[in-house]
């Protein structure tokens, strides 16, 4: 029994003696490079354009300019709205309804 197991082990070990290193087909790498260059789709073109430093800097400047415009325009509109609020304060005082948390309905019959 032990001799049979040793024989199978030896056969298994000798079965890998003739194995060579796997080699790719000829011109595999040139075909692979050609396929990778061919796969330049629209997303690759967009990302390559957007990652240019000049385009990135221009986008950042555009965002800063838009933010400055919004801040300045909101401060100008705040001044006009405070004038309107003071004029309408008397109307608001008469239409104000006062309620508190202590005012609740009597649910008992």
Please give a structural write-up.
- This protein has 109 residues and is mostly helical.
- Helices cover 68% and strands 0% of the residues.
- It contains five helices and no strands.
- The protein has helices at residues 2-14, 28-38, 42-50, 53-87, 89-94.
- The mean pLDDT is 77.
Task: State the order of secondary-structure elements, H for helix, E for strand.
Answer: HHHHH
SS strand fraction = under 5%
Major beta sheet, specifics? none
Helix content: 55-70%
Calculate the terminal CA-CA distance, rounded to whole Å.
Answer: 98 Å
Mean pLDDT: 77
Low-confidence stretches: none
Structural class by helix and strand composition: mainly alpha
Number of strands: 0
Number of helices: 5
The Cα radius of gyration reads 40 Å
| Shape label | elongated
Task: From the structure above, extract its key features.
single chain, 5 helices, mainly alpha, 68% helix, 109 residues
